[in-house]
Each structure stands twice: as C-alpha cells, then as structure tokens.
Amino acid sequence: MLFFALALANLAFFAWWRYGSPADAADPAPLMRQIAPEKLKVLRPAELPPPKAAKSEKLGPSSASTGRCIEWGGFTLADVARAESALEPLALGPRLTQRRTWEPTSWWVFIPSQGSRQNALKKVAEIKELGVRDYFVVQEEGEHRWAVSLGIYRSEDAAQVRLSRLRNQGLTDARVAARDNVVAKVWLQVSSIDASLQARLNVLARQIEGSELKDCP
Asked: Which pLDDT belongs to residue 166?
C-alpha cells in the first residue's frame, strides 16, 4: 500500500508540473548567472560623469587664421594701383581695405633759429669744432630764418639716424621736424592673416621698393 501511495503522489506532482504550473514562470538560475545584485550601485544625477565633448577638427598651420591685420604701404595715389594689381591673385575680397593718411614728403634735421645772422655764424663755428661739415644757414624770411639746417631726408627714420649721430658728436640742440609739404598716402590693409598669406605679402613688399609691411594701427 505504501508503494502505491508514493507512486500516486509522484504521478500527481508530475501532472501538476506539466499542466498546472504558470506558463510564464521564470527560471531563477539564468537571471542569477547574468546579474550580480550585490555589485549594482544606483547613482544620483550629480554623480554621473560629464558627457565627452566632440573633438574639433584640427587646422593645419597654413590655414589657421590669427585674426591679425597687416597694412602695406604707404603708396602715393599714383602708385596704389600697382600694389592693388599685385594683390589681385590673392583674391582677398572684403579682407582688403584702404586707409588714407596725410604725411610729410620730407623730414628736416636742424638747429632752431638763432635770432640773428651773428648768432647763426657763432653756432656754425661751434658745430665745425665738433667735426660737422654738412650744414647751411637758412636766410629766407619766416620763422626758420637764421636756423642751421643739418640735412633733409625722405623718411623720419633716416632723419632720426642722422640726429643720433650728431648727438654722439656732442651736438645736443639739434632736432627733427616734418617739412611743411605733405602728400596723401594709401595703406592697403589685409585682415585675418595666416602664415601662408603673411609669407606671400612679404614677397610682394620686397618687389615694390620703398614699401613696408606693419601691423594695422
């Protein structure tokens, strides 16, 4: 009787397992193999790492614009057309603009008026003793009458070089001033300079004598 009771119980359990258990019952073993609950950690929003920034494209040295502005000049109104023609192959478009100035045509190194012919001749004797030979006394009527001229130069830089040499010789009362005559000058300004464009401008500047490149004011 005990044998038949055990057999009947086993048969009833098999029937329940096969036909009576829920169809969607999950097997716990696969889940335990996929997730280790003790290793999970819930993070607060403040603890999340920041998103990675997108990598920007790197520019080569020849294409990186510095934002620098350079001007080329100064040209007379008669010469500016030649300079503009030289720049045409660069296709600068709105990056090319003009700046006009009024500049002296020459610079004067001189000793101010001595007030009289006698005083001017006395000053001439002094500068002769210092070894200065290039000079003349201004005799025309005006504010510079009886001044002693020591040279006239096309640029202020050249005049300053002359003044420095005279002061090294001991002539301390000489000075530099612009002459009365002025002329219109044109400076061609190029913006957004990069290394390649800078090199090409350097070449052009050497082709036109007397022109120079400098930073825009």
From this structure: 96
Mean pLDDT of 110-139: 95
Mean pLDDT of 202-209: 92
Helices (H), the chain: 2-15, 28-34, 80-87, 117-129, 156-168, 195-207
- Burial, 34: exposed, middle or buried (Cβ in 10 Å; 0-12, 13-18, 19+)? exposed
Give mean pLDDT, residues 3-28. Answer: 53
The DSSP element (H or E) to which 213 belongs, if any, is strand 212-215
CA pair distance 171, 129, nearest whole angstrom: 10
CA–CA distance, 116 with 127 (Å, rounded to integer)? 17
Tell me if residue 150 falls in helix, strand or coil: strand
Helix axis angle, 195-207 relative to 80-87, nearest 10°? 140
What is the distance, to the nearest Å, from the Cα of residue 214 to the centroid of all Cα atoms in its chain? 11
Cα–Cα dist 186/103, whole Å: 10
3-class secondary structure, 30: helix
The b/e string for 191-205 (b: 16+ C-beta within 10 A; e otherwise) is: bebbeebeeebeebb
Question: Tokens 């700046």 identify what position?
Answer: 99
